[in-house]
Write a structure and sequence with these properties.
binds zinc ion; about 220 residues; about 70% helix; single chain; alpha+beta; globular; 4 strands; 4-stranded mixed β-sheet
Length: about 220
């Protein structure tokens, strides 16, 4: 569902985001009353705003490198800035990837001060943005940290080999998430690990398809 357009970039809200947000507020209301439901709704809106600004950070820096963004899609697990092409220059990829977490840091700092002054919800917003920034900087594909890792590796190994190597690192992180999630009893952490395994295998498949036509690097398989 398109909610608005910013600088020709359609901002699209995935239906699962709305279902989950409404469900969360309704369940909070039933369990804890209308006041807690209102706070939950407000926190959801602040989370939504933070994810959107994170993605706009990527989109605006991509624009600086003449790369357009087709749309920004907001999902319950985070957002995606659909840029028209992957940057050729490793430096551009690093800056575009870092722009999102940098936005979270920019939001975190005043919120931390506001939280210290006792302003309501500032603490929650500060924690949310700190967590979002750190989580996205983990060196696992397709998160921002994984892209930074790939760009750094591609300076030495070239783009294809760098992508394979960063996908290996992503797989290790995915299994750490799965095991820690099971160990701590946190299903969300395990689900993130499963999501990463899925995304990593998708990327590897794409790369295998691409390189199987490439005589420079035939039949690379993990
Ligand atoms: Zn990001």
């Amino acid at each position: 569902m398109r909610i608005f357009t910013y600088r020709n970039i359609p901002i699209i809200l995935h239906p699962s985001f709305i279902i989950l947000a409404v469900g969360f507020v309704v369940v909070s209301g039933i369990l804890h009353g209308p006041a807690i439901a209102a706070i939950s709704g407000l926190l959801g809106a602040l989370l939504f705003g933070s994810v959107l600004l994170h993605e706009l950070g990527h989109a605006l820096v991509a624009k600086h490198y003449n790369i357009d963004t087709h749309s920004i899609v907001l999902l319950p697990i985070g957002g995606m800035a659909m840029i028209s092409k992957e940057p050729d220059e490793p430096r551009a990829e690093i800056y575009i990837a870092l722009a999102g977490p940098a936005v979270n840091v920019v939001i975190f700092l005043p919120c931390a001060v506001a939280a210290y002054l006792g302003i309501p919800l500032a603490y929650e917003l500060a924690v949310l943005n700190l967590a979002m920034g750190i989580f996205n900087l983990l060196p696992a594909f397709p998160m921002d940290g994984g892209r930074v890792l790939r760009a750094c590796l591609s300076l030495k190994y070239g783009r294809v080999e760098a992508t394979y190597r960063s996908l290996k690192v992503s797989t290790v992180f995915a299994w750490i998430f799965i095991v820690l999630g099971l160990f701590w009893g946190l299903i969300g952490v395990t689900l993130v690990g499963i999501f990463l395994i899925y995304m990593t295998s998708q990327h590897r498949q794409q790369l295998d398809d691409m390189t199987s036509h490439n005589s420079h690097r035939p039949n690379r398989r993990e």
